Fold this protein.
Amino acid sequence: MAILYLAALVLVSAVGNAKEVARAAQACAGLTFLSWIIVHVQEPTASSVLRCLFACIAIGVTAALLISRKRLEATKQDLERSRAEVDLFANSVPYVLWRSNPRGEIEYLNASWTAVTGLDRWTVLEGQRYNDVVHPDDIPILSETVSAAVANRTVTNLKVRIRQADGSYRWMQIYDNPAYSPLTDQVERFGGLSDVHDEVVAKQELQQVRDELEISRAELVNFTDSVPQILWRADSRGDIDFFNRRYTEITGRDVQATIEQQNHADDIHPDDREQFELLFEADVLNHTEVRATFRLRHANGDYRWMSLVGRPVQFGEGSEEVRYYGGISDIHDEVASHQKVKELNETLEHRVAERTSELMRTEQRYAGLFDVSNMTFAEMDFSAADEILDAIKEAGVTDLRAYMSAHPDELARTLGAIRTTRVNEALARLMGYDSVADLISNPPAQNADDGPEVLLRQLEMHFYGVNHIDGHTVLVGKGGRRIPVYFTVTRLADGLHLSSHVDLSERARIEEMRQAAQAEMARANRIATVGAFSASIAHELNQPITSMVFDAKTGIRMMSREKPDMEGIDRILQRMEKNALRVAGIVQRTRENLVGRRRELGWIDLYSLAIETRYLIQHDLQRSHVQLDVICATPVPGIKADPIELQQVFVNLVSNAIDAMRGQAESRRITIELIAREMSVGVRVSDTGPGIPEEHIQKLFEPFFTTKSTGIGMGLEICRSAVAAMGGQLTATNLAEGGACFSFDLPFPVEQTVASSPSTDFETK
């Protein structure tokens, strides 16, 4: 029976828990004791008591073993559950985690290893080939660092490049920490990998920017010391804290000593010093532009006229601090030229005053004597023409000039209704006619170069209710004789117009003298604007020089390779040669501007020039992730222009578009479109940037106006002047779909014949 009870306990343990086994054991022991009482209570024996006691002990021992087994199974289940949770946690972490033994051999990798590298973690652990994903250049430093950390039981903290599942390498941070394991009684190592690629790349780019800034600083110092003008900078109080080297070359004074003592005004002529200081202090106080002209003592002791210009610039965004930047240019020759022109103007005014006084005396003497007056008079009858004008006005026409331009036949009919009623002898003599009748017989429109225009102005007098007009014209007399005159027309009653004329032949001769003087003054002005040319030189040379620097760096890197790319080096050298030629052309062009020399124009293939421009600024386009398309839908004939100036216009406009789209997340695209017209070639340079603020459009082409923190505001002014010199007009607009567009037309020469572009693929990207 005890054996049956044991079998019953085993069955209970198979289907029940530990508590149920304990209860079953108690029941079996009770039944065993009860059966002993029933059988042996009348005649108890020692053997029966021992058997009963042994059965109860067996039942208890069996129950205890079964309960221990139950508890062991529960502990094993808890252990398996905990282990599964640990694995789930380790495999859920978005980092690669591992455990290595005291020798540094990795014994465990979580599932992130496969997600990051694409390699099966169990295969890698089996072959201990986890270093296969490390960049070959980083393996030596990794092995050295890990070996030292394992030997010294220190932390491993290292950045290496790890090959990703897509085959690319990314910078990742290895962090490995030693920890004592109570299970193995050894120091094991636990670590992980985290992606720090963006951080490393950002630091590398920051270092590159720092290097470029250092180069830019050196170039800026070299530039400021090379400018032939004195450059200066002052703080918000007007204290000068910078002079370039030119200050010492001109004045002979030490820059640092002058800045420390703030006594630069001592070199100004005593007669100009007080006015200069008052003007300078007032402009600085009001934060306005400083402009002053004064005589400055040079190193040889002579005084020369100088022009100072300074502009206030806000120092940093959100800051109210203002600094002044400016320059001092030599205008001594210009002032001397102005004095000569002033003397000529005084002579001219004196002559005109004498002539006017003489005419007034003549008019007073012969007032009312139309026919015998020395003043030239003509009287014309506009009454018939006035009736035509009244009918036109009643028809609702408000713009007479536009109406006559659209109806030339009506204009001819109206002019034909005008009659010359009488002229005086003075006018006939002036125009070379022997009699007044010969002059009256001519149609009025044939008596002047712009006769129809003068008569149209007289028609507008009646149409708009004006009683007096005046102006200049050239009378055409007998035998083609040409007399420049100043005329006045007064509208009288009954449709009569009385005109008088002042012979300007002598004045024209004086005007030629004045223009000659002005030509000399213009040359002096060009010399005085060297400061502006210096800014333009810096603006125009910046892009080709920067491109040459990048090409030089690229060529050095290509030459340092084990197998230099000679074809690539050849292309770089060709591009550097073209940029060097551009620099030489810009310098030559600036020199010619200064000496007033006209450059010889040549035939230009606009399409080829645009393609070459894209090639020259390829570095800027690639660095800024900008696509430049050159579109020429139909053949474009060649034009006659300056290739260096025109290419610089393309470079400036494209560079401005690149700057406008810098930092833009959307598509960055610039288009140069060439359009063949009947008498010209249209050029459009458009971009997909943010466009031009409306408040800036009217100021874009003003000198020194700029929206860039590092700009000087000369680029668009240079472009506009260059295009104007070629017969075009540069304009700027915003596109409806977004972005800005700069456009201009270049006219064909009169003798040009239509020629197709050499390219057969006119739409090129």
In short: The longest helix spans residues 46-92.
